[in-house]
């Protein structure tokens, strides 16, 4: 089939990674995939589908080529995708990587966008329930995956200092409030105060690190070491050198870094974020707390002081992560795609 994906950006990030992985795998199994970007769209992933750009600025219905299915994602791509679908008589499916109204600006527009496209795909049962409760639409679940580049490189040295790491994204722009990064730093500082021997690594995309004044201030903070992986191989190394990986996000439909770190053999300490319940089970393969419990630092310290528990959780997490692959996600996506198209012939 001819599949058209309108995309705002393909810079480094969880949603963009899933778009890249799905479209690449769909191309590999024989679909004709076109990714439509704004005229100034940025691409930081290696893409196998065809890339085209809007003639002027933002996406317009006239920019969409002919195809069988349009797959929108972020709320700002939904209205224009629906117009293009109606003009071309092709099926419009929304693949929602997050539920935007709860945590992003312009929530009146993002909320109403869920009343536009009845064909909906989501990432987790938590997200499915929220959308069904608010809009009456039961989206089909397409789970997240982990690529083969992420693996346990077995570079941890028990004779060296223990490493605790976390992702830090640029706070400027209003798109990272759900990550609770101020809380993360507060909790990491508490850990450092109790265990000064521990190394704290903050991992950021190099572009965001360079352009964010807030992230720049952390460079001179002696409590942290900054890591800016240029690609997934380097990111895998940083996950693999981490004894404990920490996630403070309180609102994620999939939460990729946590499961990627698990695949690389790190013990996960996390805040409940909704979507991470697809792969997290407290006390079995991670330590998880609700934000109100204010327990993130305490859980990290527990794993610092209990190496046997840390190793057991890391081993279980690595095992569980094997069930999540992009090949499986793509197959589920394709199956649902065929079902929807069969119900909506052009």
TrEMBL record:
GO terms for molecular function: glycosyltransferase activity. CDD domains: GT4_PimA-like (cd03801). Residues 175-319 form the Glycosyl transferase family domain. This is Glycosyl transferase family 1 domain-containing protein. InterPro entries: Glyco_trans_1, Glycosyltransferase_grp1. It comes from Paenibacillus etheri.
